Amino acid sequence: MIHTILQSSQDVPEGAEILTDVEPVEKTLSIIELITSGGLAGQIIIAILFILLIVACYIYFERLFAIKAASAIDSNFMNQIKDHVSNGKIEAAQLLCAQVNSPVSRLINKGISRIGKPLEDINTAIENAGRLEIYGLEKNVSVLATISGAAPMIGFLGTVVGMILAIFELANAGGTIQMDVLASGLYTAMTTTVAGLIVGIVAYITYNHLVVKTNKMVYQMEAHSLEFLDHLNEPI
């Protein structure tokens, strides 16, 4: 009997040993599958965050190009203005300002139109025009600040919704913990959090970059305005 059992064990093919050493299959998950696995609630929140990301990118590039165009001014512009003003060619100076479409040229044109009045009145007119120009440069930039703060909170809202769904599914499972039951809620919680943080970080960085660019443009406007006022204050 024992001999028969030993003989049977020796007759087992070598390939049978391979069946006991099955290698685990590595499971991969793409971004699309990750989003679709989060359920309807997660997909809605991801869609909202995606729209906010598009809006943030549009505002950033639109303002960046606008500020770049506004800061492009001929280095010889102020010299020509001062020559025209010194020679009494006020109309030529105004025509030159009209040909240059920039905040600096509009400020100088406002100051030229006040020539003949007290210097304090000219300065006040330039400052008022400067406030309007700054308001135009900062158009929609505050929306980026709003997105940078709202996007993470929307992501955290998805986290709460996902955890509620996970707990609800767990309660309906009769106390038996099954990961496939919890997967949908957990996917919603994690994907929305990551998406919200990504959108918030992008909006925050772009907002601060535009603030730096705008401040640089404001300094340029102030420098040219002071140069123009100093020229008017020079003794003839």
From TrEMBL:
Domain MotA/TolQ/ExbB proton channel: start-end pairs: 101-222
Single Gene Ontology BP annotation: protein import
Entry membrane topology: Multi-pass membrane protein
Highest rank taxon of the organism: Bacteria
Localisation: Cell membrane; Membrane
A Pfam match: MotA_ExbB
Keywords recorded for this protein, A-Z: Cell membrane, Membrane, Protein transport, Transmembrane, Transmembrane helix, Transport
GO CC aspect terms: plasma membrane
Regions that span the bilayer: 40-61, 141-167, 187-207
Family: Belongs to the exbB/tolQ family.
Protein name as it appears in the record: MotA/TolQ/ExbB proton channel family protein
Organism from which the protein derives: Bizionia argentinensis JUB59
